[in-house]
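Predict the 3D structure for this chain.
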Amino acid sequence: MSITRAARLALTKIERENQFLKEEKITLVDTEGKIFFEKVGIADRCEFSFIEQMKQLTRALRGKRDNLTHNHPVYSPLSVTDIKTAVLLRLNEIRATTNHGLLHIMELPKNFSVRDAKKATIFLDNMFHIGTPRLRDFLMHRSRFKKDLQRYIAQQMRSPTRKQRKLIEREIGVRFRTLKIEGQEVVRPPANPFDLGETVKMIKQGKPIKMTWA
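Done. Predicted structure below.
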């Protein structure tokens, strides 16, 4: 779905201001370029609360197709969580700037319905083997629940590979783009594959996670 000129100008201005923040910051902009929601998180994530999600879902049901932009201080393209958020809230675009000079964008189709969002969410969960940790394991097998929770968090934070992005484009109808931010030199981080096992180990040890390109 094409973005309006007013929204594009507003998003560009916000992205220049937020690109080098040390914490992740979410900003929602409507088609007229007006900011109606902002939230600051921590270095590797910023999440909507349940009430915030419900408010945005209500806007989507009323036909509002908003644009979300945020910064990634940890050198990563759009994550699985970013993609699922855009699908769930039926956004027009989701965008992520990084402090190495790139802007990552995912555009959703113009007529993206509630049914499409439901089918896309199931597809993404199956594609990335995402299963919510079970309450039964929390009550009976604390260690298993802890491992499942750590794996669940790591899966949500990972970024799809180029091959996976192509598959998502074909199955869901979205479009991924990566643009160079004007006036900035692109500095690419190390191109090592994302190691889920290593990430789970880092979470266990309480170490900060540095995302890498897949």
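The CA atoms of residues 208 and 214 lie 19 Å apart.
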